[in-house]
Design brief:
Layout (H helix, E strand, L loop, with lengths): L7 H12 L16 H16 L3 E4 L5 E5 L10 E5 L13 H16 L8 E5 L13 H6 L5 H5 L9 H8 L14 E7 L4 H5 L3 E7 L1 E10 L3 E2 L11 H18 L5 E3 L3 E4 L5 E2 L2 E10 L2 H22 L2 E10 L2 E2 L2 H13 L4 E6 L5 H4 L5 E6 L15 H18 L4
Parallel strand pairs: 3-4, 3-5, 5-16, 6-15
Antiparallel strand pairs: 1-2, 2-4, 6-14, 6-16, 7-12, 7-13, 8-11, 9-12, 10-12
This protein binds (2S)-amino(hydroxy)ethanoic acid and manganese (II) ion (2 copies).
Length: 412
């Protein structure tokens, strides 16, 4: 197999250009799913895809596909590369975008080099991977893989009260293709690690063999509003204090365990949210993750038990609503082995890894052999404007993706 190399300048320039789209007045990068800023990112990606001479297809949940096929291979199942371009709030420029732009780069390089694949190669931008505005996360790829009815996803109401389907209409990305219209022969996703392992161990490439389970809940605690100055401590039904106890319970339990379990409370809101009123209501999110399904279930049960005790002891009413729940996923061992062998052929070190973050690959793994390639994140920082991966690592990862896709598209 002839080994090509991506156009490093073009890829790095596009990562920076896309990273400049969607900055607010404070310069913070925020491209929430189906927002005006994400539309601008989608438009830019589609312009690059058109310019590359690929066919564009958009499905009903707004997933975008850039497809390269020939008359000879158009009826074969495509090799699919993908990720996302929606971001969290005040995000870095690499999360998701790196994988999408590297996928486009791989196709453009193979096209330019005159490579003739035995099957189509496509790059996908999946809608709402982050799940910050609409839950659950990885929504577009979940719908694509048949894990969530498209009508239900389109009816999702966001944290801002908008409806996803209406927002996709408004930004012009409510497509007509039925989700799942392309049945991939294989799926590969290139992504920054978003954790500290590769950098700490001085390894260039992560061959991701599995991905941990994810549990998202929204907890609502109802107590009684009362005067901050006149209400004795013994008479309070303080929803705010109860929320603080739950946050401490989760943090201490995960910290004390000698397992990879992680627990995060990322959003919290008090009502009436006034300096001199004991909160009557506290609403917050709980993100629990573990590579082992039984342990994740045990963490969910421990939380449920603690909430029941807290409600009884404090005269509170506590409810929990499930926002997302995904079991751990194991990726395709042949593709993982191919990633490792490819890294070796390019003289790069690699290691098998578990993904701590959720990714679209965990959903597409339901319908096609799938795996992921990681490159180092400096300081393990992500979901933060300080997210950074050196250009040399970005290019190394993209060339591994290039070789892996080329091999998957020649059936060797
Ligand atoms: O939550 C996650 O792990 C991903 O960034 N959506
Ligand atoms: Mn991501
Ligand atoms: Mn992310």
């Amino acid at each position: 197999m002839t080994s090509f190399s991506v156009n490093a300048e073009r890829l790095v320039a596009r990562i920076r250009d896309l990273g400049a789209i969607g900055r607010d007045t404070d310069g913070r990068l925020t491209r929430l799913a189906a927002s005006e800023t994400e539309k601008a990112g989608r438009d830019q990606f589609c312009a690059w895809v058109r310019n590359a001479g690929l066919e564009i297809a958009i499905d009903r949940i707004g997933n975008i596909f850039g497809i390269w096929h020939s008359n000879e291979n158009r009826h074969e199942a495509p090799v699919l590369i993908g990720s996302h371009i929606d971001t969290v709030i005040n995000a870095g420029i690499y999360d998701g975008c790196y994988g999408v732009l590297s996928g486009l780069e791989v196709i453009e390089t193979l096209k330019t080099e005159g490579f003739a694949p035995s099957r189509p190669i496509a790059v996908a931008v999946f809608t709402n991977e982050e799940g910050v505005r609409y839950a659950p996360d990885m929504m577009g790829s979940l719908v694509y893989a048949g894990g969530l009815p498209v009508e239900k996803a389109l009816a999702a109401v966001g944290t801002d009260g908008t409806m996803l389907g209406e927002e996709l209409q408004r930004i012009g990305y409510a497509g007509s293709e039925e989700p799942g219209f392309l049945k991939p022969s294989a799926y590969v996703e290139l992504h920054i690690e978003q954790g500290p392992v590769l950098e700490r161990e001085g390894v260039s490439i992560g061959a991701v063999e599995n991905l941990q389970g994810i549990s998202w809940q929204r907890v609502t605690i109802d107590g009684v509003a009362n005067h901050a100055g006149t209400t004795p401590m013994s008479m309070r039904r303080d929803a705010g204090h109860a929320a603080a106890r739950v946050i401490t319970f989760l943090h201490d339990r995960a910290t004390a365990s000698n397992t990879p379990t992680v627990a995060t409370v990322g959003c919290i809101n008090f009502e009436p949210n006034a300096v001199n009123v004991i909160p009557s209501r506290a609403t917050f999110t709980v993100d629990l993750r573990d590579p082992d399904e039984d342990r994740l279930k045990a963490e969910e049960a421990a939380l449920a038990g603690y909430l029941t005790e807290l409600a009884a002891a404090g005269g509170l009413t506590i409810t929990a609503e499930r926002l997302a729940r995904f079991e751990p996923v194991t990726f395709d061992k042949h593709i993982v082995e191919l990633i490792e062998a490819t890294a070796g052929r390019r003289g790069l070190t690699s290691k098998r890894m578990t993904s701590g973050a959720g990714h679209d690959a965990q959903m597409i793994a339901r319908i096609a052999p799938s795996a992921m390639i990681f490159v180092p994140s400096i300081g393990g920082i992500s979901h933060n404007p300080r997210e950074y991966t050196p250009d040399a690592d970005l290019i190394a990862g993209a060339n591994i993706l290039l070789d892996v896709v080329q091999r998957l598209a020649t059936g060797q």
